[in-house]
Amino acid sequence: MTDLEKPVDPQVNTMGANQMLKQEDVEERKDVVLLDIEAAHLDGYDLSSIKVAPDGHTVLVPQPTDDPNDPLNWSWRKKHIILFVVSLTSFLADYSSAAGVPCIVLQGKEWKMNPEKVNYANSLSVAMMGLCGLLWITFVSFWGRAPVMFWSILTGTFFTLGCALSTNFSTFYAMRALMGVSLTAYQAVGLCVIKDMFFYHEHARKIGIWIASFVLSPYLGPMLGNFIIAGTGSWRNVFWVVFATCCADFVLVVAFMDESWYSRTLELELQPSRSGSRLLRVVGLWQIQNHKGNFLTVYEAFKRLFVVIFDPLMLLIFFY
């Protein structure tokens, strides 16, 4: 086992036989979330041995299993490399979309079009990002986190290449729309991976890193795009840089990504084996082979999405 894959053993608090916090108490109590072992007696918990953070009092929520394949037990290094890859993949969506804005004047001259009409391609890309983000949520539920990242960045990279090689507006328009469909995936579902790998008390910082990546991206895209055009005089060079960034991200996905979904409703002995090649989990073959009982069905995944969308409160927000 490499250093990247060595699990981090959480500290186990030993409080004596008459003061022990049972793991199921932490996970089954719906009215409260126990975050500090010292407050257990205030909420009427039956004390038993419980896994806590290295500080000795912060309760690990959810409680990790004894399975080294549990993403909560992955090493600090592996978790944070994947967090970086997730953040970079999320960054690419708005970065690639906004980077095309400075190109519209040069594109208009080349294609003898009004730059305002050329900008329709950028608007369509943004629209597709907003709409298709919802669809990607269902894919991670019935197929897994890793294959969604792999295939979305792979297809997005090819569509970016198509933009750089486009010789007419119609081709460019189609490629920009497909870029929006594919590259938006991890803006929508990156949070799932973070919650799979990190404990509740770690969420704020890790989610902050992920959010910062795509909050900054729509500003960095046009800024770099303007510098590239000013220095080279070619709009295609902007998309070549975006293409290179996508390629770099794809290499990182292949090199480091792993499936972070872990069903906590299955007993340890029923968990599917992960002894095979990690790449099988990255491309999605492992998920197909071990789908039953481990992932939602396609129907269940879409049903859950529509239940949320058509919730009265959500409908009020949409109309507002």
How would you describe the overall organization of this protein?
- By secondary structure, the protein is mainly alpha-helical.
- The chain has 14 helices and two strands.
- The relative contact order is 0.14.
- The model is unreliable at 11-28 (pLDDT under 50).
> On the 0-100 scale, what is the average pLDDT?
87
Shape: elongated
Strand order of the largest sheet: 1-2
Low-pLDDT stretches are 11-28
What is the straight-line distance between the termini? 53 Å
Strand content: under 5%
Order of helices and strands: EHEHHHHHHHHHHHHH
**Helical percentage:** 55-70%
Report on the biggest sheet: 2 strands, antiparallel
Give a count of the beta strands, DSSP E runs of length 2 or more.
Answer: 2
Number of helices: 14
Rg on CA atoms, Å: 23 Å
Quickly give the structural class: mainly alpha
Provide key terms for this protein:
single chain; elongated; 14 helices; mainly alpha; 61% helix; two-stranded antiparallel sheet; 320 residues
How would you summarize the topology of this molecule?
Elements: E1 11-13, H1 23-28, E2 50-52, H2 76-99, H3 104-111, H4 115-118, H5 120-142, H6 145-165, H7 169-183, H8 185-197, H9 203-232, H10 236-256, H11 278-283, H12 285-289, H13 298-309, H14 312-319
Antiparallel strand pairs: 1-2
Helix pairs in contact: 2-5, 2-7, 2-8, 2-9, 2-10, 5-6, 5-7, 5-8, 5-13, 6-7, 6-8, 6-10, 8-9
